[in-house]
Amino acid sequence: MASTRDLPVAVSLEAPVRPRSDPDIERMRRLASLLDNYFIDPVIGLLVPGGGDVVGSLLGLYSVAIALRRRMSPVIIARMLLNLGLDALLGIVPLLGDLTDVVFKANRRNLALLEQRAAGGGRATAKDWLILAGAVVAFVATIALVIFLMGRVVRAIGSVV
């Protein structure tokens, strides 16, 4: 009697069935890879101190737009905005901010939030909306601070020249 090891193994010539990929998530995956894995975000921040961090944060808002379109929980959106705000805030410190960009990777964090919550967002409570409002205010304040500090640096350089 033959054992199961001696029986021929059937080989399928058909391609394995893959779940259909989500185009928004795929675009965000490419953007996050470009900005964080290929270090475009820290390089822009290094070349254009302060301004590069604003550009990086504005590009990172794509993940927030996806979350808003999908009506994800405001808590998730708040976390995404906080990731971007923290990245911008830390990025304003010359050199140290660029090194922080290499480690923190806000876009990869936001991509992970999108992927983990893609199946469903959950119902928002009043507390969720308060967290979202606080995150929006913190993000806008961070960007305003970066712009203000850039203006101060430009004025200081102008007064020396």
Give short descriptive properties of this protein.
single chain; 161 residues; mainly alpha; 7 helices; 0% strand
What is the count of helical runs? 7
Report the C-alpha radius of gyration, rounded. 22 Å
Distance between the termini: 94 Å
Number of strands: 0
Major β-sheet, in short? none
Shape descriptor = globular
Question: Care to give the gist of this entry?
Answer:
The protein is mainly alpha-helical and 161 residues long. The protein has helices spanning 23-37, 40-47, 51-69, 74-91, 96-104, 106-117, 126-160. It has one domain.
Verbal overview:
There is one protein chain. The protein is mainly alpha-helical. The protein has one domain. It is built from seven helices and no strands. It is globular and about 55 Å long.
Lay out the secondary structure.
Elements: H1 23-37, H2 40-47, H3 51-69, H4 74-91, H5 96-104, H6 106-117, H7 126-160
Helix pairs in contact: 1-3, 1-6, 2-3, 2-5, 3-4, 3-6, 4-5, 4-6, 4-7
